[in-house]
Amino acid sequence: MLSYQHAYHAGNLADLHKHALLAWMLDYLTAKPKPLSYLETHAGRGLYDLSGAESAKTGEARAGITRALAEGWLPEDHPLNQALDQIRTLHGPAAYAGSPLIARYFLRPEDNAHLAELHPAEHAALAQVAGFAHLHAQDGFQMANALCPPTPRRGLLLIDPSYEVKADYESVPRHIAKLSGKWNVGVIALWYPILTDNRQAPMVRALMRDHPEALLSEVRFPPARPGHGMVGSGMFVINPPYGLEAEAARLATLYAGL
C-alpha cells in the first residue's frame, strides 16, 4: 500500500529484532569467499533520521534502538552494532539504517543486490543512498518472481511487507511457496508483526506446515502506546544459516526481560 511510511517506526523494537537477525545472517554469509545475491521486496528509504518529527511523534525508536544502545542489549562485536556504528559515523548520531543500508555494510563488490520499493517518495529517497544496488520501482513480489533464482544463486531474500491490508496475510504463504520452489538454495526471510488480534497466526501455521524445517523466531514486547496493536515481532527463515537459531534464542531471552 502506498500510504505506509516506515519513518514513524524506524528503530523500534520490531526493527531491532529483524535487523539483528538480518545482520547476523549477512555477516555469516559474507564470511565465505563466494559471491551472493541480496534481494528485498519492500526496501523503504534505507536511511532514517531518529531526530525527525516522524520518530518523535511515535517515540518507538526511544523504546527500541535508542534504549538498546544505551543499555548494551547488543554485544559490542554484534554485526548490527558494527553496521550501525558505520551509519552514525557517515550520517550523524541520529541516523538509523534500514535493511538496505545494513545490507550495504556487509555486501562486497562481487555481490549482487536488488531492492524493490513502490512508494514514489520512499523510492526517490532510497535512490539517494542505495547506489550499490539495482533499484526496482515495482511490486516486490513481482521483482522477486522475475529474478528468482538469481545470479549468483547463493544468497538471501528479505520479505518485509507493510501488512496494511489483511489479504497480505493470506497471500504471503503462496508467494513464499512459489519463490522457495524456484530458489531452493536461497535463504528466504519473512518479517511479520505479532498483533493483539492474532491475525498473523493462520499465516504462520501455513508457513510452518509448508516449510517444517524453517526457523521461527518470535519475540514479544509492550505496545508502543495504549491501544497500539503490535505486541511482538516474528521472523520466519527458510534455509537458516548455521548458528542463527542460537542468535534467535539470545534475542528471545533479551526480549523476555523487557
From TrEMBL:
SUPFAM superfamilies (alphabetical): S-adenosyl-L-methionine-dependent methyltransferases (SSF53335)
Record GO terms (molecular function): 23S rRNA (adenine(2030)-N(6))-methyltransferase activity; RNA binding
Active site (record annotation): 160
Spans through the membrane: none
UniProt cross-references to HAMAP family, sorted A to Z: 23SrRNA_methyltr_J
Record's subunit section: Monomer.
Protein name: Ribosomal RNA large subunit methyltransferase J
